[in-house]
Write a structure and sequence with these properties.
By secondary structure, the protein is mainly α. Helix 5 packs antiparallel against helix 6. 28% of the residues are buried.
Length: 222
Amino acid sequence: MSHPIAFRAVRGLGTAVVALIAVILVLETAGVVVRWLGYRSVSGRYEGTVSSAEYNAARDIMMPLEVGMWLLSVLLMFVTWIILVVWMLRSRNNAQLVSPAQHHLSAPWAFWGWVVPVVSLWFPPLFLHDITRASNPQQRGTPLVPLWWIAWLTAWLTFWTGSVLTAAGISEDHDTIQTLRDAEVDSLFTFSLLRTVATLLFIAAGILLSTTVLKITRTQSH
C-alpha cells in the first residue's frame, strides 16, 4: 500500500543552499585576489623587482592561503550539493501536488542525475526545469536554469583547462625562480587569467541557481 505524498516545507533548505553559495562565491573571489598577488610576486622576483626575502615571505603566505581557500570552497560545494539534492527531491514531490504536469525524470534522479556518467551532463538542469514548470503552471519555463547549467559547466571546463595548460607549460627542473623561461611566466599569467574567468562564471552560475531556488521556494511556500 503506497502512502500519499505530503507537502513538505522547503524554505529552510532553500535558504541554506543560497547562504552556502554566497560563502563559496566569497571564497572563490578571495582566491582569485590571492592568485594574482602570487603571480605578481613570481613575476616581480623573476624580473628582479622583488627581493628574495619578499618573495619567500609572500610565497609562504599566499600558497597555503590559496590552496586552503580552494579546498574549503570545494568542501562547501559538496555540502551545498547534498542539501540541494534534498531540496530538489522535496520540491519535486511538492510540485506533483501543485500541478499534474509530467516530469521527464523519476524522483531518484534528483541524486543519480548528478553522478551517472554522460547523463549527468544534462539531467540536473532537466530535473530542475521540470520542478520550475510544475511549481508555477502559469509559467512555461525560465531561461535561468539552462543559463545556470551552461555557466556551471563552462566554469569547470575553464578551470581545468587552465590547470592542465599550466602543468604542461612549467617544468619542475628549476633551482631558482630566475631560471624560469619567459614562456613559463606567461603560463602562470594564463592560469591566473583563466582562473579569473572561471570564477566569474562560478559567480554567474551561483547567482542564477540561487535565484531559481529562491523563486521555487517562495512559490511553494505560498
